[in-house]
Fold:
Amino acid sequence: MDKNRKEIIINEIQHWKATKLLPEHYCDFLLTLYTEGDQDVGKSNKKQTGLNQLWFTFLIVHVSFLLTILVIYFTDFLLVMQMAFVVILTAAIWIIASKSTNQLVSSYYFMLIALIFFLFSVEIAVLFFETSYSIPYLTIIHCIAWIIIGWRFSLRIFLLAGVLGLVFAIYILFS
Structure:
């Protein structure tokens, strides 16, 4: 069969599959028949695209997280500029976490956001109070907030982090 004609038929079958004019398994059979087995018509292409997208968002979130750590601890920006960077990058992570369909991945992203807020509030406490005595109390407040968020939204990672952080902060406070 002519290559041009075969390409037209393959495109038409893909259109039928996309618009569901024929059942999917019929279209897969016809595509396999006309491509002589050369074209992968299964769902592995969708899985590969989803996996690439997951890795891309994972990379974006972690680069944003590392940039916030860099801005908080390793720059001499004014506090207002640091706050702007932290808010913008945290909002980007929040949007990605909100759009994520995987519950475990989205709760992990939300935990990164909570960690960013904790680190930034510790930096502000050290800047304003110029002492490390307020940090255990600040940690206790954050951990209680994490426990409440974990309980309210059924996020086990927040419950676990809140309980472990609370135990650690109380241990540090009384030792």
User: Anything to note?
Assistant: The radius of gyration is 25 Å. The chain is about 85% helix and 0% strand. The chain has a mean pLDDT of 84. The CA atoms of residues 62 and 159 lie 22 Å apart.
